[in-house]
Fold Carbamoyl-phosphate synthase.
Amino acid sequence: MKLLFIGSRLYDDINWYVKEKNIESILTESNEEAINLDLPDQVFIVPRGMEGPKQVALMQNVDAIVPLIGIDPPLIDVAYMKEEIEKEYNIPVIAAGIRAVDLTSDKIKTKSFYDEINVVTPTYQILNDPEDLTLDFPVVLKQGHGQGGRNIKIANNISDVKEYFNDFDVALCEKFIEGAEISIEVLSYNGEIIPLSPIYKGETTLEGTHPLNKVKNGPCQIEGLDNNLIQHVAYKIAKNLDSDGIFEMDFMYSRIDNQLYAIEVNTRPNGTRYLTAATCGINSLCELINMAIGEFSIKNILDKMEYNYACEIPVGYFNGKSPKNPAKSFKHNDYVVHGPEAYQRITLKAKSKKNLENLIDELGL
């Protein structure tokens, strides 16, 4: 089996699994100084865009293509390549299609999509002028495109809104939800859809604290909220997107309203994946490989499913004992360290809450 991987930044997460499966690995990357270029069997440096990877895939006669792209802008190009190469060359591309990317990469289109499929999302309006605001404060101002918390502002008064419009001509304006932030990964391929364990990412704050600066926990355990509901809504969204790959879905739960609100969807590998893997034993990036080699199914996922307690803690620099190889896998580890230096996070797992607390103490966290 020969697979083409697009993008090197995430490759060290799955290199061990590629070797375990005896897969011949070919990788394309546009940056010749990128990390992980020493790991695959072959590497091709290509121009930005999808024409280079497509030509390498055809030249090398690969069995499938697995994009490992963690940012939004290239996703639509990947989707167009997927449509072309699957139709003309019958080579599977394990990624979301054009419609799914179009709907999820634009937050305004995502809102309309939620409305169409009757999924509850915070009340919103498209704001072209601060004076047109009809929602009560506080409100959240966003741009249609963007990731990582960029261009988002919590406005407590009209002055905050006017300040936001100094930089932008239009805004997606939605009601601020006081409550819990939740993420869930959903795997989907050839019509088989399975939501994984919901993850608790902390409480919303008027200061807009980024989730990377919070301690996260898995599985989500919020009084009054059934995780089955989160998984049910996530399944409904994925089913209506009708596409392949990984979906990361963000929700908020208001204890005041006793309501789960859908916020957004990402059709790419995401930062929740380590905590998901620690909690339920399913590594979403490895499942992309399983989709490519014909070993993905709901039955196989359920057979591998674990039930752990897990947490993810920002540490900046981790000076403790290094995890065993493969260092980015929980196969032989109770904890994994990830992220760039000065922004490292550690994700830990245990079979009980008490054991998890002991592990945290043992590592001096």
